[in-house]
């Protein structure tokens, strides 16, 4: 599996994505559930923007709503098996984590570590891959959107650092991002803080 981790949208290394399409195919699943608590209008606007950007890169996009697969992991697995890439949008990392848990996407992704598979994420779509989501409490409200009594603080743990997006960027919660970085430094937590535009590409095996 290859992780394409961006602070905001698809960043400065989109040529890598174009090369991926040449060597694989251009079908991709777009997952928007990190925005579920924001309402339909926000979801629609952001999805529309991301579809445009992904099409500019060369992808053919299908929308995936994880809510339709809560407690239906096998059905979700069948769908994802038909794709070589997914894109996980930003939003609230705690909402996204619940959606991944209840749909089984968290377990499915881990099965793909040794496959020729591309995971694109930005903002919360990357942070959710960290080990401990607790460091993000000051930035994202730790709400249990689908189940208020089951907030999940354990990330997927596919990366061995905290992915901190929007660092020193034109972001409305920039001061809170600074606090997260300061907390990681103080508590000696491994982290990588990215400015908007920056991208990390990692290969897992």
Question: What would you say this structure looks like, in words?
Answer:
It is built from seven helices and eight strands. The mean pLDDT is 96. It has 205 residues and is of the alpha/beta class. It has one domain: Rossmann fold, CATH 3.40.50.
Over the alpha carbons, how many angstroms does the gyration radius reach?
Answer: 16 Å
Class by SSE composition: alpha/beta
Helix content: 25-40%
Strand content: 15-25%
End-to-end separation: 7 Å
Question: How many structural units, i.e. domains?
Answer: 1
Number of strands: 8
What is the global morphology?
globular
Report a brief summary of the structure.
This protein has 205 residues and is of the alpha/beta class. It is 35% helix and 17% strand. It is built from 7 helices and 8 strands, in the order βαβαβαβααβαβαββ.
Write the layout of secondary structure elements.
Layout: E1 2-6, H1 14-23, E2 27-31, H2 40-57, E3 60-64, H3 73-80, E4 85-88, H4 93-103, H5 105-111, E5 118-122, H6 124-127, E6 162-164, H7 174-186, E7 191-193, E8 199-203
Parallel strand pairs: 1-5, 2-3, 2-4, 4-5, 6-7
Antiparallel strand pairs: 1-8
